[in-house]
User: Which sequence fits this backbone?
């Protein structure tokens, strides 16, 4: 019968844990040894306790509390384990989605820094862009900055954004308004959320070719930059359409509005 028992050290080594962990599990009643050696009082375990220990270790890895595990162990069944795992899988999926969103945000910030280090502010270029889905809020000339902040905050709450840095923000102004010289006629603010799937109520920024330009400084000089963009388009025989999408790319590394750089992207009619 003795050869069917494992010492606490052997059992711990087999599962890649410290034997003190097994001692603690015994003390709190989570996993008792199969037997106690009658002569030296050492804890002894059997191979058949391995699946139970692995379940405990899995649940601990999923941040299930000791009390939750204790309750499960007292009422262990396929149904109760399924319910517990369903809950933790849902938690894990939310965490994975959050981390993927953070990774995409970091990529965006990093690309903005690469752009800052390599850009020619005077350059107007044609770039290819993929389709993206944007959350938008409607604004008009009389919308105050405070109201814009409230609108953006409401949307971030609606989409369960934990922090503002988890999304990219910008503004939209129609090409029709720009061509009329109405450079303050911004109609929408947009929020780009990572992994946002197309659905009703979202704005689809179309895939295709865009004119990209940059403006540095305050908004009072931005009409001059747009005029340069329109002149370039006319020289190249390009027709601009839809909206101009403006997004600041260096807010995190400046202190003065004079250093603020706006990226301008306008769809080209194919």
Assistant:
């Amino acid at each position: 019968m003795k050869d069917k028992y494992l010492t606490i050290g052997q059992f711990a080594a087999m599962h890649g844990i410290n034997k003190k962990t097994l001692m603690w599990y015994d003390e709190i009643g989570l996993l008792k040894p199969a037997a106690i050696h009658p002569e030296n009082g050492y804890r002894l375990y059997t191979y058949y306790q391995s699946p139970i220990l692995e379940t405990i270790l899995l649940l601990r890895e999923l941040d299930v509390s000791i009390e939750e595990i204790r309750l499960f162990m007292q009422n262990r069944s396929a149904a109760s384990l399924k319910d517990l795992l369903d809950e933790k899988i849902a938690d894990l999926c939310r965490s994975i989605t959050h981390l993927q969103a953070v990774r995409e945000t970091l990529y965006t910030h990093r690309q903005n820094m690469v752009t800052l280090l390599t850009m020619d502010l005077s350059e107007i270029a044609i770039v290819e862009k993929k389709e993206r889905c944007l959350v938008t809020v409607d604004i008009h000339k009389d919308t105050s900055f405070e109201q814009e902040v409230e609108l953006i905050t409401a949307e971030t709450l609606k989409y369960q954004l934990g922090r503002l840095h988890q999304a990219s923000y910008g503004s939209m102004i129609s090409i029709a308004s720009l061509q009329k010289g109405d450079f303050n006629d911004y109609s929408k603010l947009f929020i780009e959320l990572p992994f946002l799937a197309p659905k009703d109520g979202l704005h689809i920024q179309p895939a295709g070719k865009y004119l990209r330009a940059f403006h540095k400084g305050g908004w009072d000089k931005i009409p001059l930059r747009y005029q340069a963009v329109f002149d370039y388009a006319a020289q190249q025989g390009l027709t601009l359409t839809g909206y101009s999408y403006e997004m600041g790319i260096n807010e995190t590394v400046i202190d003065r509005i004079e250093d603020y750089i706006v990226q301008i992207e306008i769809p080209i009619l194919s």
Notes: The chain has a mean pLDDT of 88.
